[in-house]
Design brief:
Elements: E1 11-12, E2 20-23, E3 26-33, H1 44-53, E4 63-67, E5 70-74, E6 79-80, H2 91-101, H3 112-122, H4 128-140, E7 148-151, E8 160-163, E9 166-169, E10 176-179, H5 180-190, H6 195-205, H7 210-239, H8 242-255
Antiparallel strand pairs: 1-2, 2-3, 3-5, 4-5, 6-8, 7-10, 8-9
Helix pairs in contact: 3-4, 3-7, 5-6, 5-7, 7-8
Amino acid sequence: MVKPVTNAELTLLPGLSGNSWQNPQAHSEIYRFTPVKPLPFVDRQREFRLLRKLRYSHVAVKPKHYDTGCLTVEWIEGKPLATNLFSAKNDELLLLLKQLHQHPLLGYRLPFVTLLTRYWQLCQQRHPQWLRELKRLQRLGEPQPLRLVPLHMDLHPGNIIQGEHGLRLIDWEYSADGDIALELATLCLHEAPHAEAWISAYAQLFTLDIERLRLQVKRWQPWLLLLQASWFQLRSEQTQSAAMSAQAAVSWRYLLP
C-alpha cells in the first residue's frame, strides 16, 4: 500500500495554481493535490487517467499513482524551456506539439460553456458586463472544431521541460480533447507579437488552410479572454493576492469596455 503523503512534509513548487509539491529528501516524485478551494475542471483523478493514456507517447510526465485527491507523477530532470526557444521556429517544440495532437483522443471533452458558467457561479465580485459577455457566448455557441485532438491548454515555457532526452510537457490539469485551433489560440493570446508565425507554422505542420485556421483562432479569442479574466478573478478572491488582483483588473480592462 502507498503511504499517504501530506503537504506538511513537502516543499511547494512554483506555479500560479500552487498545488504541486516535492519531498526535499526524495526528488523522484511530484505530488499534485486537489485544490482546497475549488478550481473548475481541475480533477486529479481525471488528470491521472489521461496521463496514463499518454504514458507511452514521450510527450507527458508519467503518472505513478492516484490516491484520495493526490496525484503522484515522476520528476523530470531538466530545466524549463528558455523563453527565446518558445518559438514557432523551434522545430523540436513543433514536433512535440505534433506528437500530442496526433495522439488518439483522451476521452474528455473540454466543456467550455460549463467551465465559464462555473467561474461566474464561484466568484463573489461580478458585474453586468461580465454576465452580458457570458450570455453572448452561450447564445453564440462554441465554434465547431476544425480537428478534434488532445490539447494541453497551458502551453508556456515554464510547462515545457528541456531534459536529456528532449522536451516534455508538465502540468496537465487543464488538458482535454478539443479543437486544434483552440490550442493555437491560447498560444497566440500570450504570444500576440508572434501570432502570425505560430499560425503559419501550425498550418504547414498540420496541412490546414491558413486563412481558415486564422479565422478559427479569431473565433476562439473571446472565449479565451473571458476564461483568462474569470480564472484570475477567482484566484484573486481565493488567495487575496495583490498580484492576482492586478492581473484580473488588466484582463477585465482588456476584455470589457
